Amino acid sequence: MAESVPGSVADYLEQHEKKDLLRILTCGSVDDGKSTLIGRILYDTKLIYEDQLAAVNRDSKLYGTTGTDFDPALLTDGLKAEREQGITIDVAYRYFSTNRRKFIIADCPGHEQYTRNMATGASTCNLAIILIDARKGVLTQTRRHSFICSLLGIRHVVVAVNKMDLVNWSEDIFRNIQKEYMEFVERMNFSDIHFIPLSALKGDYVVDHSEAMPWYTGPALLEHLEQVNLSSDRNLVDFRFPVQTVIRPHLDFRGFAGTVASGVVRKGDEVLALPSRRKSRVKSIVTWDGERDEAYPPLAVTLTLEDEIDLSRGDMLVHPNNVPRFADAFEAMVVWMHEDSSKPGRSFWIKQTSNMIPGTLETIRYKIDVNTMRKQEGGDADLHLNEIGRVHISLHRPLAFDPYDKNRQTGSFILIDRATNATVAAGMIVDRLTLDRYGRPATEGSKSRNIRYEDSFVTREDRERLLGQKACTIWLTGLSGSGKSTIAKALERTLHEQGRLCYILDGDNIRHHLNRDLGFSAEDRSENIRRIAEVARLMNDAGIIVITAFISPYRVDRDQARAILEEGQTPDQAGAFRFIEAFVKAPLELCETRDPKGLYRKARSGEITQFTGISAPYEEPARPELILDTASAPIEDTVQQILAYLQEKNNLA
Question: What's domain 240-318's architecture?
Answer without folding.
Answer: Beta Barrel (2.40)
